[in-house]
Each structure stands twice: as structure tokens, then as C-alpha cells.
Amino acid sequence: MEYVTQFAEGFMGLFQTGAQTFISWMSGIVPVVLMLMVLMNTLIAFLGEERVVKVAKVSAKNPFTRYLLLPFISAFMLGNPMSFTMARFLPEYYKPSYYAAQAQFCHTSNGVFPHINPGELFVWLGIASGIEQLGLNTMELAIRYMLVGIVMNFIGGWVTDYTTAFVCKQQGITLSKTVDTLAN
């Protein structure tokens, strides 16, 4: 009977710990994420959706704006998974590369901007918990993670450009490198 009791106490303890974590999130990270989402929607409303679309089209012109600027702006303004929709304003040739850069950015910026990818916030919170237990600053880690991520996201996007070129040549496919403004 003692083992059954210990198992039941441990089982309930698991849920009690989960409840305590949930309550800490409700008074900590959830309001921050909510306020960042309000800011994001306010900025889009203030700037106008047309201007946001124009930024996406202009950023398609070179790899730095395509894989550094556009992923950051769209992730910050739209979050995951909406940030991927900005690819619709890019030429077909660059869509795979944008997707590669954007997918990585939604993960590497989570520590600084938790509203970007709240669905995977538990990963960052787990890492941050370990860092806090070591007595280290979590924001320093978050910023380093984001900066390294930005560089790697750019490289990933650009490498995907070369991969796309290779596959197009291999398959005999020609993808457009210009934006069709009438289709958007």
C-alpha cells in the first residue's frame, strides 16, 4: 500500500508542479506576449497593410533585405506561422530561401521576442530556467542566440538560393526572379 500511496502522491505532485508553472506563466510571460501582440497589431494598423506589403516587395531585391530584414520584420509583426505569408510577395525563385530563413528566425528570436513563436516558448523557458539556476543572465543568452541565429538564417537563406538554382537546372525548371505586382 505504501508504494501505491507514494505513486499517487508523486502523480499528483507532477500536476501540482505543472499548475504552479502555469500560474507563474500567467503572471509572467503571458502578459508580456499579449502586450507584444497588441503592439504588433497596432503597428500594422498604424503603418497600414499596404505599406507592410510594399516593404516585402522592396526587400525581395537583394539577399540582405530578403534574408535579414524581411524575416525579422515579418516575424516581429506577424509571429509564427503568419510570418511565412510574406513569401507571397516574393518571386517564386526566392520563396524556398525565404522559408528557410524565416523558419529558423522564428526559433532563434524566441528569447528576446516571445510573441514570435509562443507555441515553442516552453523550449526557451526550459533553457532559461537552467541558465537562471546557474546564476547567469538569460537576456544575454537570448541576445546572443538571436544574433547568431540572424547570421545563420541569412546563410541558410542564401545557401538555399544555390540549392534552388541547382534543382531548377537539374529539373529543367525556370522560376521567376521578379515580382508580378498584378498577381499580388
UniProtKB/TrEMBL annotation:
Pfam families: EII-GUT (PF03608). InterPro entries: PTS_IID_sorb. GO terms for cellular component: membrane. One of its GO terms (biological process) is phosphoenolpyruvate-dependent sugar phosphotransferase system. Keywords: Membrane, Transmembrane, Transmembrane helix. The gene is srlA. The chain crosses the membrane at residues 22-47, 68-90, 142-160. This is PTS glucitol/sorbitol transporter subunit IIC. The keyword Metal-binding does not apply.
